[in-house]
Design brief:
The complex is a heterodimer of chains A (348) and B (220).
Chain A lengths: L2 E7 L4 E9 L5 E10 L1 H4 L7 H23 L8 E7 L3 H18 L3 E5 H7 L1 H5 L6 E6 L4 E8 L3 E7 L5 H11 L7 H8 L26 H16 L6 H27 L3 E5 L6 H14 L2 E3 L3 H4 L3 H13 L23
Chain B lengths: L1 E6 L4 E10 L2 E11 L4 H16 L8 E5 L5 H18 L3 E4 L1 H6 L8 E6 L5 E6 L5 E8 L10 E3 L1 H5 L1 H4 L2 E3 L6 H13 L30
Parallel strand pairs in B: 1-4, 4-5, 6-9, 9-10
Antiparallel strand pairs in B: 1-2, 2-3, 6-7, 7-8
The chains are: A alpha/beta (348), B alpha/beta (220).
Bound molecules: zinc ion.
C-alpha cells in the first residue's frame, strides 16, 4: 500500500510544502510542490533578513499547505507521515516549520520525521531521475551552502568531504552582483550578463586550490575581494566596468573550482555518480562545465530541474519518504530546530 | 464547547483544555512550563498532555483560543504556528486573543489596572484596563519609566521586573493562563463568530538596515 508523505521546509526564505507518494517498490512520486517566497522582501537589504523571513513563514505556512493539498487533490487525512526540516538553517525560520509540522502530526495522529535540509537537496533528485545509486557524490551549492558530500545511504549515511571555509557560492554571487550594480539575488543576473562576456578576460583566483589547501574545501571570499579590487581599479582609472567580462570571468572561477573538486573526489573515490543541487546548480556555466568534466571522467551527472534545486517542500517530502522506506525511527514531538544540524544527521 | 488554549508570548509555555458555556470556563487539563527557550520543543507535547489529562482527544476539540502577543517574536511564533496548523488540520476555528487581555481576564475587577509583560531590551509590553476589565489603552511597547500611568497596580511578569520604574504594585497573574485565554476569547467563541486572522501583535519592526555602497577593498 503506497503512503503519502508531506514535507515542510522553512529553513531560509522559502516556505515550502510538498507531497509525495512512496510506492511499495520504494520509488517516490511527486504530487505537489508549493512554495511561497519572501525573496522580494529581502532584496533591498541585499541578503536574507532572518526576522523578515520568519514573519513571512508564519503568514505563508497554512495557505501554502492548503495550496499543496488542492494541487494534489488530497485531504490532510490522507497523509501517512510528516517530514520537516529540523536544520540546518535560520533558527527563527526553522522554528515556524517545526512547530507547524508537530501540530499537523499531533492533530492527524501520524508520525513526524525531523530531517536534514542538506540531505533533502540530494533526495529531491530521485523525484526526477529515480533511485540514486549508492555510493554517490553530491555537490550542494546555494546562497546558504557549498558542500561536497559522499552519500552511502540517503536515509542514514552522508559524510561531508568538504565545504566552504567562508562564503557560500551563492553569497559570492550576491556580493559580486552588488559590486556590478546588478539586482539581488545575484545568481540569475550574473549568469545573464556573463552570456555576453569573455570568461577568459580576467584571471580571477581559484580559491583553495594550492597544494597545501584542503582538497575538497572551498573559499570564495578571496575571489569576491579580487573582483572588488579589479572593479575599483577600473573605476579609479575612469574606465567603464566591462560588466559582461567581469561576470563571465567570475562565474568561470566559481564553476572551475566547484567542478574540478567534485570530479576529483569522484575519481579518487571511484564513485561514478555526481548530483549537483541547490539554487546555484541552475547556473548555466556550472552545469555546462560539470557536464563536460563528468563526461571526460566517465562520471554520470545528475542535476535536478531548477524548480527542484531551490529550497522547497518536495525535497523534504522526498527525503522523508526515503527515511520512512528505510524504517528509520520517527522523531519525538519534543524535538527542537537545530540551526547547525550536521549533514551526518539525516533524521533526528 | 471544548476549547484548546495556547500562549507562548511570555516565558510560560502554556497549553490547556477547557469547557466554555454561558456559565463560564472550566479548565479540564493544563500544562505550563516556564522556559523562554523551549516554546518550540514543548508546546505540542503540552497540548497532548493537557488533552490526556482532560480525557479528550484532539478530534473532540471545538475551537482554539491562541495568544497573539505582544511577546518576544520567536517564541510567540511557535505558539501561533502551532495554533494555525492545529486549526487547519482539525477543521476548527482559532480565535486570536491579545495575550495581555488573557492576563487581564484573571485580575479581580473593581479598580483600574495595568498589564505589563517583559519585552526584553529593557522595554515592556503594556496595556491599561478600566475597573470592569476592559482594555482602554494599548498594547504598546516602551521603556518601563515611560509608561507614565498613574494606575497603582499592574499584573504580568513585567510588573514584577519593573515595579519601581512603573510606580505600580505587582499583582497576579504573571502570565496568561488557559482560563484567562478562554475567558478573553469567550464572547467570540460563544457567538461562533468568524475568527479574526491569526496575526501576531509584533509592535516592533524587524531590525534590518539597508546596506550602503560596498566597502572599498583597495586603499586610496
Ligand atoms: Zn537549501
Amino acid at each position: 500500500m503506497s503512503r503519502i508523505i508531506m514535507g515542510i521546509e522553512s529553513s531560509c526564505d522559502e516556505t515550502g510544502v510538498g507531497l509525495v507518494r512512496l510506492h511499495d517498490d520504494g520509488t517516490v512520486e511527486l504530487l505537489a510542490d508549493e512554495v511561497a517566497s519572501s525573496v522580494e522582501q529581502h532584496a533591498r537589504f541585499g541578503g536574507v533578513v532572518p526576522e523578515v523571513a520568519s514573519r513571512a513563514h508564519l503568514e505563508a505556512m497554512v495557505p501554502t499547505t492548503r495550496r499543496a493539498f488542492e494541487k494534489a487533490a488530497l485531504k490532510l487525512s490522507d497523509v501517512d507521515a510528516i517530514a520537516v526540516t529540523a536544520g540546518p538553517g535560520l533558527a527563527g525560520a526553522l522554528l515556524v516549520g517545526v512547530s507547524a509540522a508537530k501540530a499537523y502530526a499531533a492533530a492527524l495522529g501520524v508520525p513526524l520525521y525531523g530531517v536534514n535540509h542538506l540531505a533533502g537537496h540530494i533526495a529531491v533528485d530521485t523525484l526526477q531521475h529515480g533511485p540514486l545509486p549508492a555510493p554517490c557524490l553530491a555537490l550542494l551549492v546555494s546562497g546558504g551552502h557549498t558542500q561536497l558530500l559522499r552519500v552511502d545511504d540517503l536515509a542514514s549515511s552522508i559524510t561531508e568531504l568538504g565545504s566552504t571555509v567562508d562564503d557560500a557560492a551563492g553569497e559570492a554571487y550576491d556580493k559580486v552582483a552588488r559590486l556590478l550594480e546588478l539586482p539581488y539575488p545575484g545568481g540569475p543576473p550574473i549568469d545573464k550578463a556573463a552570456a555576453d562576456g569573455d570568461p577568459a578576460a580576467i584571471a580571477f583566483p581559484r580559491g583553495m586550490t594550492g597544494p597545501r589547501d584542503a582538497k575538497f574545501d572551498f573559499s570564495f571570499s578571496g575571489l569576491k575581494t579580487a573582483v572588488a579590487r579589479w572593479v575599483e581599479g577600473a573605476q579609479r582609472r575612469g574606465e567603464p566596468v566591462p560588466v559582461p567580462d567581469v561576470a563571465a570571468s567570475f562565474q568561470e572561477a566559481v564553476a572551475d573550482v566547484l567542478t574540478a573538486k567534485a570530479v576529483r573526489a569522484a575519481r579518487e573515490s571511484g564513485i561514478g555518480t555526481l548530483v549537483i543541487s541547490g539554487g546555484v546548480a541552475a547556473n548555466s556555466r556550472l552545469s555546462a562545465l560539470a557536464r563536460e568534466r563528468c563526461a571526460a571522467a566517465g562520471v554520470e551527472l545528475r542535476v535536478p530541474r531548477p524548480r527542484l534545486c531551490t529550497d522547497n517542500g518536495a525535497m523534504i517530502a522526498a527525503l522523508g519518504a526515503h527515511v520512512v522506506a528505510a524504517g528509520r525511527p520517527e522523531s519525538s514531538l519534543d524535538i527542537s530546530a537545530n540551526p547547525a544540524l550536521p549533514v551526518s544527521t539525516v533524521s533526528v | 464547547m471544548l476549547v484548546l488554549a495556547l500562549d507562548t508570548s511570555t516565558p510560560a509555555v502554556t497549553a490547556g483544555i477547557a469547557t466554555l458555556s454561558g456559565d463560564g470556563v472550566t479548565v479540564l487539563g493544563a500544562r505550563v512550563t516556564l522556559d523562554a527557550r523551549a516554546h518550540g520543543e514543548l508546546l505540542t507535547p503540552h497540548v497532548l498532555d493537557a488533552a490526556r489529562e482532560a480525557g479528550v482527544t484532539m478530534g473532540d476539540l471545538d475551537a482554539i483560543a491562541c495568544g497573539v502577543g505582544p511577546g518576544p517574536f520567536t517564541g510567540l511564533r511557535a505558539g501561533m504556528a502551532t495554533a494555525a496548523a492545529l486549526a487547519d488540520a482539525l477543521g476548527i476555528p482559532a480565535h486570536p486573543v491579545c495575550s495581555l487581555d488573557a492576563i487581564a481576564a484573571e485580575v479581580p475587577r473593581g479598580e483600574p489596572f495595568l498589564v505589563v509583560t517583559d519585552a526584553r531590551r529593557r522595554e515592556v509590553y503594556w496595556a491599561s484596563y478600566d475597573a470592569g476589565g476592559a482594555r482602554v489603552d494599548g498594547p504598546h511597547v516602551r521603556p518601563p519609566a515611560e509608561v507614565g500611568s498613574a494606575i497603582p497596580r499592574a499584573a504580568g511578569d513585567g510588573a514584577r521586573l519593573y515595579a519601581e520604574a512603573l510606580g505600580a504594585r505587582a499583582i497576579d497573574p504573571r502570565y496568561p493562563t488557559p482560563a484567562g485565554l478562554v475567558a478573553a476569547a469567550a464572547p467570540n467563541l460563544l457567538a461562533e463568530a468568524e475568527p479574526a486572522p491569526l496575526t501576531p501583535l509584533y509592535l516592533r519592526r524587524p531590525d534590518a538596515a539597508e546596506p550602503g555602497a560596498p566597502k572599498k577593498v583597495t586603499a586610496r
